[in-house]
Amino acid sequence: MRIVLVGPPGAGKGTQATRLAGKLSIPHISTGDLFRANISRQTELGKLAKVSMDAGNLLPDELTIAMAKDRMQQPDAESGFLLDGFPRNVSQAEALDELLKTEAITLDAVLDLEVPEGEVIKRIAGRRICRSGSAHVFHVSYSPPKKQGVCDVCGGELYQRDDDSEETVRKRLEVYHTQTEPIIEYYKTQGLAVTIPSLGPVDEVTRRALEALEREDDGK
């Protein structure tokens, strides 16, 4: 299967992408991983990405698309893939459609992980990270440490990352609503978008997603 996973920050995309890709025996293609891999290997695309990032700029759509294209053409993706973080806007979605058309393949589904905005803020703003090199993660509501502000594992100080602050999360949500959310409507017009409620246990969300994919496959 060829799947796109969409959802706001804090929806659990990374967790569900890994689980779904494993269940379906297809590669999980994350744009973040692609950027890091290309930069680490110093590929031509990686060099271009590093120049852009060092200048404090967002990566151009053309560069993101080129990296995704290169990854999707690797042998392990011949029978399918799960895209996580791409496409990020309608322009990228249109470019993906053109790319797939040249390869004579199509997407099977676009999974939209839906979670209330208040829950997104609670999930992200509640995270606390250990300052020691261990980087253990806790949550003030869902997995609090035994002693406030202290890591259960190594006794290190727990802190909130700057990009986990409520103000930053709200800004990230604004970017998601203006740039990424429109692709859901774009794919709805193609009959591909399926909304998956992302509240509840991780296993339950995975089950909902797999059932939705099965229904989509049966309907084709």
Description of the structure:
The two termini are 12 Å apart. The protein is globular and about 55 Å long. The chain has helices spanning 13-24, 31-41, 44-54, 61-72, 90-102, 117-125, 166-180, 182-188, 202-218, and strands at 2-6, 28-30, 81-84, 109-114, 127-130, 137-139, 158-159, 193-197. It has one domain (2-116, 180-218): Rossmann fold. It is an alpha/beta fold and 220 residues long. The strands form two sheets. Strands 2-3-1-4-8 form a five-stranded parallel β-sheet, sandwiched between helices. It has a three-stranded antiparallel β-sheet with strand order 6-5-7. Helix 2 (31-41) crosses helix 3. It is an enzyme of class 2 (transferase). Catalyzes the reversible transfer of the terminal phosphate group between ATP and AMP. Plays an important role in cellular energy homeostasis and in adenine nucleotide metabolism. InterPro entries: Adenyl_kin_sub, Adenylat/UMP-CMP_kin, Adenylat_kinase_CS, Adenylate_kinase_lid-dom, Guanylate_kin-like_dom, P-loop_NTPase. ATP binds at residues 10-15, 127, 137-138, 200. Pathway: Purine metabolism; AMP biosynthesis via salvage pathway; AMP from ADP: step 1/1.
Low-confidence stretches: none
Main β-sheet description: 5 strands, parallel
CATH fold annotation: Rossmann fold
Number of extended strands:
8
Name the strands of the widest sheet in spatial order: 2-3-1-4-8
Arithmetic mean of pLDDT: 91
Helix content: 40-55%
The N- and C-terminal alpha carbons lie at a distance of: 12 Å
Strand content: 5-15%
CA-based shape: globular
Query: How do the SSEs run, as a string of H and E?
Result: EHEHHHEHEHEEEHHEH
**CATH H-tier superfamily:** P-loop containing nucleotide triphosphate hydrolases
- The domain count comes to 1
Q: Tally the helices.
A: 9
* CATH level-1 class: Alpha Beta
Structural class call reads alpha/beta
CATH architecture: 3-Layer(aba) Sandwich
